[in-house]
Structures are given as structure tokens and as C-alpha cells.
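hey m, so remember when u said the C-alpha cells were messed up on ur end? i reran from scratch. heres the input so u can diff it against urs
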Amino acid sequence: MTTDGKQAAPERPVIARFSDYRAFVRDMVEYLRATKSQFSYRWFARVAGFNSPSFLKLVADGKRNLSQDSIDRFAKGLDLSAKERDIFETLVLLDQAKSDEARNRYFGRLQTLSVHDPVGRLQADQYEAYSRWYAFVIRELAAFTDFIPDPEAIARRLRPRVRPLVVRRALELLERLGLIVADAEGIPRPAEPVLSSGPAVRSLAVRNFHRKMLELASRALDKVSPTERNITSVTVPLDKQEYERVCAKLSELRAEVLQLSQQGSDVGTAPGKEVYQLCLALFPVTQRRD
């Protein structure tokens, strides 16, 4: 309601703020219902050139996918601008991609198309933070009392090393996301004691992060002394219930490690502290019997 008691006009959904095209379609349906008296599923089908009046609802509910031709028809039926149509197409291709390689390619295109929207920019920054393994390592280094925000010095601390320019961009990214903030002396420090994505996160960016960390674990077999690493594995038969129990144990261990890392002396003052990455992987190596 407005201050004069009138109903506020509904806001048109900003497609650059969506990462799920079906969510955008659902919001657009509500917007069009509120702003176009003639709007209905049947009206949309007639305008977009679909034979079935229920096709729009089936797509919005995740029961049907869109072909290239359907994308163009949806853009027409939803009255999208040329730029909105390009973003819509990219969201559809991102959703229907069959590999993370393709998903990353389409997300990169989405970043380019949404760069001027603040919410879209935030989503892109969050994606980039998780997709760059060294960003969270730098964040942990910032907790050390001897930390200096010098890209060249930080680059020398990273294993494997990265270019100072990459470090500078990572520092700027962490600051934009509020993951590091300047203390009284102007030195960037972690904004929270622990940053955890939680078990529900299944985003593309997190998969990128895990994939890179597993690559680094493989590299450590050759590049890191056995006295500085501990990489072990076990091959076991598990049924569904046993698998779930092991997953629960891994979650407990993960929480214990996070708690252990915060105990005792302050992280920044503890002698001999380095930043470590713990990778826990549990996956089947046999086909399930029918």
C-alpha cells in the first residue's frame, strides 16, 4: 500500500537477478496477471504460438523443458526485451547443460549480461569466490597477526603460487563480499571466525571449488613432503544405510575440525600455524546391483 492508501503497482521482475529461469517465469506470470487483464495461460499460448494452453505452467513447474524455438516464443509471450531475451536464453541453457564445463561457460556469459545489476554482480562475486581456491586461503591468512595485505608477499605464501595480480583481485573480491574487513589499523581481517557453506549447498561454484581442491590434493602427492600431508583412503562395501551413517560421521568430523582450528590460542598468534585444506571424499566404485 502507498501512503495515500492506494495499492502499490507491482514491480516487473528483473531477470538479471535470477539464476533459475523457471523462478523468473513464475514471477513474470504473477506480474503479468496483475498488469494485463487479458493474461491467462491460454492467452499466452496464443501470443507465443503454442498449441497447448498448459505449456507455460508445465515449464514453470519443471515438468517440461524448452527448445531453442520455445525460448524465442517464450520471450515473445513474456514480452521480453532483446537483452532480457538473451539473459533468458542463457538461463535456460545453463539449467539444461549436461556438464559443469558447459554450465561454467553459460554462467560466464550470464555474468557478462548481468554485470550492471547490483544483485547480479553480487551473485557473480559469490560464484567467483568459490571458483577461486586461493580466495578462502587468503581469507584464512588474514587472521594471522603478521598478515600484510601485500599481493606479492601473499603470492609467495600460497602453495601452489599464483600471480600477485590474481591476489590483488582476490583481496578486492573478499572485501566486496564482506568476507574481510579492515581493523583499526587498516589491515583486512576475516569478518567471521568460520565460514561454512553447509551441507545444503550444491551450487556450481562450490563444485568448482571442490574439484580444484581435489586436483591440489592429487598434486600434493608429488609436490608436498609426506611429513606435511596426510592422504589416505579405504575401499569398503556399504549398503544405503551404512553409506548414510558414514556421511553423518564425515559431517561430524568436519564440524570437529572446524571447532579444533578455533580452540587454544588466537589463530593469528599461534606459532607455526599454516593454512591447510582437508578433503573428504566418499563415493561408490562399484555398480549397485538391481
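this time it looks ok to me. The beta strands are 180-182, 188-190. if urs says something different then somethings off w ur setup not the seq
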